[in-house]
Specification:
With 266 residues, the protein is of the alpha/beta class. The protein is 47% helix and 15% strand. The chain has 2 domains: 210 residues, NAD(P)-binding Rossmann-like Domain (Rossmann fold); 41 residues, no CATH class. It has 8 helices and 7 strands. Strands 3-2-1-4-5-6-7 form a 7-stranded parallel sheet, sandwiched between helices. β4, α4 and β5 form a beta-alpha-beta unit.
């Protein structure tokens, strides 16, 4: 399928690894130009170089911390100056380390999640949307989470901010549709990240069970997230969805909140 992205520029926050990088690969395979943003200079330069070498496209790495006011705005301005006007924006970043029950987390933890999860999205959209509107339109893809719509007692700040991202996305879609802006939100369930793989290994060792059983225990008993497919997702599976939403093939899709979670009860 031709995604209609050739020679168009896409900005990806969280583009050095995981879902963001996997989405970048799909776009690059169809000839898109890519501006990847991460907190780590070494990681983002390696990711951009890998895309350029593998797919023969223009891919550049930029450094910014979405949780710090001014950094996103500055990096998007630099991207526009050096690479041109973006056609699409994908935000996959979001703090997950400072979480717990409402009794466990303090104001600083809530503030950290607010800045990184919610305001990271707000700043990226606020800086990018006017550029796309001036050039005739574009698309925004945000990342919320399964926990934004299904209560998780150990993720109070994170889940609350991800719920706000869903509302933000719907507002962008409704407000700027006539300006040519589409906005959709992806809600991943449990994915096979480094952190999840580590927790599976811990259960496998501590309980002397197979990796398959350790995975079931983590998904069902710990995460309280039994899924029809019985496994965590792969980053590439989410990346393909995100790339499609960014593409011209999704031209009539906006304001959608899409679960990619292996089939939950939600």
């Amino acid at each position: 399928m031709d995604l209609g992205v050739r020679d168009r520029l896409y900005i990806i926050f969280g583009g050095s690894r995981g879902m963001g990088l996997e989405a970048a690969k799909v776009l690059a395979a169809d000839g898109a130009k890519l501006a990847l943003v991460s907190r780590s200079r070494a990681d983002i330069d390696a990711a951009a170089a890998g895309l350029a070498e593998t797919y023969g496209v223009t891919a550049s790495g930029y450094v910014a911390d979405g949780g710090k006011p001014g950094e996103i705005e500055a990096v998007i301005s630099k991207i526009a100056e050096t690479m041109g006007t973006p056609r699409g924006l994908l935000v996959t970043t979001g703090l997950t380390g400072r979480n717990g029950t409402i009794e466990d987390v303090d104001d600083d933890d809530w503030e950290a999640n607010f800045q990184d999860v919610l305001m990271g999205h707000v700043r990226a959209i606020r800086a990018t949307a006017p550029l796309m509107i001036k050039s005739g339109g574009g698309t925004v893809v945000t990342t919320a989470a399964y926990s934004a719509r299904a209560a998780k007692s150990f993720l109070f700040p994170y889940a609350s901010m991800k719920a706000a991202v869903i509302n933000l996305t719907k507002n962008v879609a409704k407000t700027y549709g006539l300006d040519g802006i589409r906005a959709n939100c992806v809600c991943p369930g449990a994915f096979d990240t480094v952190r999840v793989a580590g927790r599976i290994s811990e259960i496998e060792t501590s309980q002397a069970v197979s990796r398959q059983e350790a995975t079931r225990i983590l998904m069902h008993d710990v995460f309280k997230m039994p899924v029809a497919l019985g496994r965590p997702g792969q980053a590439s599976e989410a990346g393909e969805l995100m790339a499609f939403l960014l593409s011209e093939r999704a031209a009539y899709l906006t304001g959608a909140i899409i679960n990619i979670d292996g089939g939950t009860d939600f």
